[in-house]
Design goal:
It is a single chain. This protein is α/β, with parallel strands linked by helices. It is built from six helices and five strands, in the order βαβαβαβαβαα. Helix 1 links the parallel strand 1 and strand 2 (29-35). The chain has helices spanning 14-24, 46-57, 72-78, 95-108, 126-134, 148-155, and strands spanning 2-7, 29-35, 63-68, 83-88, 111-116. The longest helix is centred in the middle third of the chain and has 14 residues, at 95-108. The structure holds adenosine-5'-diphosphate. Adenosine-5'-diphosphate is lined by residues 7-9, 13, 15-16, 19, 86-87, 89, 117, 121, 124-126.
Length: 158
Amino acid sequence: MIAVYPGSFDPITNGHLDIIRRSAALCDRLIVGLLVNPQKKSMFTAPERLRHLELATKGMGNVEVKFSSGLLADFARENGAAAIIRGLRGNAIPDYEFQTALGIREVSGVETLFMFSRPEYIYMSSTMVKEVIFGGGSIENMVPPIIIPEICRKMKVD
Ligand code: ADP
């Protein structure tokens, strides 16, 4: 089975990486989709986020990273995906996720599969990483170590 794991990954966190690892173990190919919404403000540019994703998934044989500025349903269909993976951080599916999953299945036939976060990553989000960066704290245990030099270069701190 081919699956797509979409997100804005601004930046990728250890929570994302855990979902990537665990879902890649369940499918033949996992395509991590950097889906960019031009209306959403981001800290990292799309090429920066793509590089972070490539560095973090390097060596994972059945994982590839792709960029799209289009619709998730089209992205999934164009890549021959049977399923979309979404990570869940709580014990309820947010309305937005529920509506998107039903809408995508309606227009494209692609199913959405939800995977629970590991307990240690439940509170981890890209937003929290950005707050810590701006607050001058350490993001050492929040993002894949390989992207830390990239983030420091951008922030011009070490
Ligand atoms: P989006 O902007 O589409 O919510 P994100 O980049 O924030 O995308 O996240 C991509 C996916 O990863 C989403 O399915 C989100 O729920 C999931 N996710 C984010 N953080 C975690 C985490 N700590 N544990 C599990 N899943 C997560």
